[in-house]
């Protein structure tokens, strides 16, 4: 991942070694731990103002979560999305968009119900999922719709470690 960043960062604890890392909201590639070099989960909050830089310019697939703090199903699905962002670290960027604070994003994608999940890659919509679903269903949906290059990356990771996918 590019180490040059002028934008905001968040601090993420590596799920492998516990080291705290600064992760930029916008960068090329995907973040890796400065200590153990494993991929880090990449979860970002964004608004109408920086949506293009955070999502459209991303070089890794992006799962956009359009939600609102008052939405019960949104709060229920959030832990599953964060779990998937950790499982798919290096292969997926999770971007959370508060529909109340970013009406332009909702208009752009015709969001009429929340939560709405939009899987994107290189600025293009791959698929949309409306409503809350359990982690198992969301994992299957993401696996089915991730771009082929990410699936190939997954297969090469599995073969290099000798481990299959769970």
Explain how this protein is built.
- With 166 residues, the chain is α/β, with parallel strands linked by helices.
- Helix content is 33%, strand content 24%.
- The protein has five helices and seven strands.
- The strands form two sheets. The chain has a five-stranded mixed sheet with strand order 3-5-4-6-7, with helices on both faces. A two-stranded antiparallel sheet has the order 1-2.
- The two termini are 27 Å apart.
Give keywords:
166 residues, alpha/beta, 5-stranded mixed beta sheet, two-stranded antiparallel sheet, 5 helices, 7 strands, globular, disordered N terminus
Number of helices: 5
For the termini, the CA-CA separation is 27 Å
Strand order of the largest sheet: 3-5-4-6-7
Q: Oligomeric state of the chains? A: single chain
Q: What is the tally of beta strands?
A: 7
Query: Overall mean pLDDT score?
Result: 87
Share of residues in strands: 15-25%
Overall shape: it is globular
What level of helicity do the residues show?
25-40%
Topology (elements, then pairings):
Layout: E1 9-13, E2 20-24, E3 42-46, H1 51-56, E4 62-67, H2 72-87, E5 93-98, H3 103-109, E6 116-121, E7 124-130, H4 135-145, H5 148-161
Parallel strand pairs: 3-5, 4-5
Antiparallel strand pairs: 1-2, 4-6, 6-7
Summarize the structure.
The chain is an alpha/beta fold and 166 residues long. It is 33% helix and 24% strand. It has helices at 51-56, 72-87, 103-109, 135-145, 148-161, and strands at residues 9-13, 20-24, 42-46, 62-67, 93-98, 116-121, 124-130.
């Amino acid at each position: 991942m590019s180490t040059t960043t002028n934008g905001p960062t968040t601090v993420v604890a590596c799920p492998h070694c516990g080291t705290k890392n600064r992760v930029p909201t916008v960068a090329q590639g995907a973040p890796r731990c400065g200590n153990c070099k494993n991929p880090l989960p990449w979860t970002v909050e964004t608004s109408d103002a920086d949506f293009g830089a955070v999502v459209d310019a991303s070089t890794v697939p992006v799962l956009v979560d359009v939600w609102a703090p008052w939405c019960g199903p949104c709060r229920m699905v959030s832990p599953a999305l964060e779990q998937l962002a950790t499982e798919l670290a290096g292969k997926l960027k999770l971007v959370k968009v508060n529909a109340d604070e970013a009406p332009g994003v909702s208009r752009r994608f015709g969001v009429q119900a929340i939560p709405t999940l939009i899987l994107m890659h290189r600025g293009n919509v791959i698929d949309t999922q409306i409503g809350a679903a359990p982690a198992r269903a969301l994992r299957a949906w993401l696996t089915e719709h991730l771009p082929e290059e990410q699936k190939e990356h997954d297969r090469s990771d599995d073969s290099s470690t000798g481990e299959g996918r769970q």
